[in-house]
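Sorry to interrupt, but I need a hand with the structure work. Leave the record below and I will have a look:
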Amino acid sequence: MVGGPFTSHTLAGRRFSCDAEDTAQIQPQGRINEGKPNGDGTIRYTQSRVAGTLEGTNLVFDPQNGDDDYLMELKETGKPFDYSGTANDGVVWSGSVQITGELKFNYKEGVVPVTLTGIFQKQG
């Protein structure tokens, strides 16, 4: 297995490379277990549902290609869009997501940190 970040992400049909130094983390949607203390010293366990997230990735964008405007438009719609991403080890994730948080474009470096929230499924 080859560890490391993603090689690319496709958001609503447009492919973006990503920074090779990314420390991308993906959390598939599902449940988290929590242990909560009781007054008598015992513990009770609860489950909460969580949305899937992809964090720690910097998309490479080209302003001359309108990539910055494209990403802003995707975010501003507030509607989910199709996603797929390919990791260094060849694993492909896909799903329906939305950009959450801020988009802070670094025009000097040509990258923008992006957080995606939604449904992620590992393919194959």
